[in-house]
Amino acid sequence: MSDMLYQQIAKDILNEISDTLWNISSVEASAIIRRILAADRIFVAGAGRSRLMMSAFAMRLMHIGLSVHMVGDVTTPAITSRDLLLIASGSGRTSTMITICERARSAGAAIAAFTANPQEQLGGMADITVTIPASYTRGASSQTQIGASTFEEALLIFTDALIITIAEALQIEDNDSLLWKYHANLE
What we know:
Blueprint: H1 3-22, H2 26-38, E1 42-46, H3 48-63, E2 68-70, E3 84-88, H4 95-106, E4 110-115, H5 121-125, E5 128-131, H6 149-169, H7 175-182
Parallel strand pairs: 1-2, 1-3, 3-4, 4-5
Helix pairs in contact: 1-6, 2-6, 3-6
């Protein structure tokens, strides 16, 4: 592969992600921030690469001092009506995520979904839906990338932007010092 081919592909990917990010609703973003700040604890879920992006989000939520748990980890406690489930599914119909939502709903927890398809079942189950408007259909997910990469990459960047906004709302003046206070030290 020539350098020029790589550079053009990278440019196309960045343009896709940028276009997706600029089209996320600021109203939806504000709603998710308010819900995160109101929750006693935050539970985070996703499947596949979406889980990886949500794990990164959970880590940063912890780094700014919030109580957060990854669904499925052995130390994750029971969710309650004072908690928030943050769940990601590009398709909006991942069966395991639907089951997790049903269980969270039966416990009385609030549910916020990140999806490319808010009209699907997950969007209907959520109290708040943040639409990550990446093309997401089998065989037509992206002009450039494989699968749901644009959704997943935009989700990662969007949630990193949420962290900065949440830290400001919490009046955290030195994000980096707080990160290192909570950063893993057994590595």
